């Protein structure tokens, strides 16, 4: 069951990353904020369950340099 859970998290994260890119491209600042929050939330869930998912500090909610 853990493998299924991890795969679902990865799929949701992939979709949120695509949605974030689309929001950025469209200049949708509210969408960018929403998808960044979604990504950060999924990463926290993964961490709580010991699922290692490569990510950037920006995806954790940090500001870009």
General description of the model:
The chain is 69% helix and 0% strand. It has helices at residues 2-26, 29-48. The mean pLDDT is 89. α1 (2-26) runs antiparallel to α2. It has one domain. The N and C termini lie far apart (38 Å). With 65 residues, it is an all-alpha fold.
In short:
By secondary structure, the chain is mostly helical.
Task: Write out key terms for the chains shown.
65 residues, mainly alpha
- Number of strand elements: 0
Number of domains: 1
How large a portion of the residues is in β-strands, by DSSP E? under 5%
Radius of gyration: 12 Å
Q: Kindly state the mean pLDDT as a whole number?
A: 89
Helical content, roughly? 55-70%
* N-end to C-end Cα span: 38 Å
The structural class is mainly alpha
Uncertain runs: none
Q: Element order, helices and strands?
A: HH
User: Per the principal axes of the C-alpha atoms, what is the gross shape?
Assistant: elongated
Secondary structure layout plus pairing:
Layout: H1 2-26, H2 29-48
Helix pairs in contact: 1-2
């Amino acid at each position: 069951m853990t493998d299924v859970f991890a795969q679902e998290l990865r799929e949701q994260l992939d979709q949120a990353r695509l949605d974030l890119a689309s929001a950025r491209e469209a200049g949708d600042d509210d969408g960018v904020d929403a998808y960044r929050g979604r990504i950060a939330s999924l990463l926290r869930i993964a961490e709580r369950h010991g699922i290692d998912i490569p990510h950037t500090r920006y995806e954790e909610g940090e500001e870009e340099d």
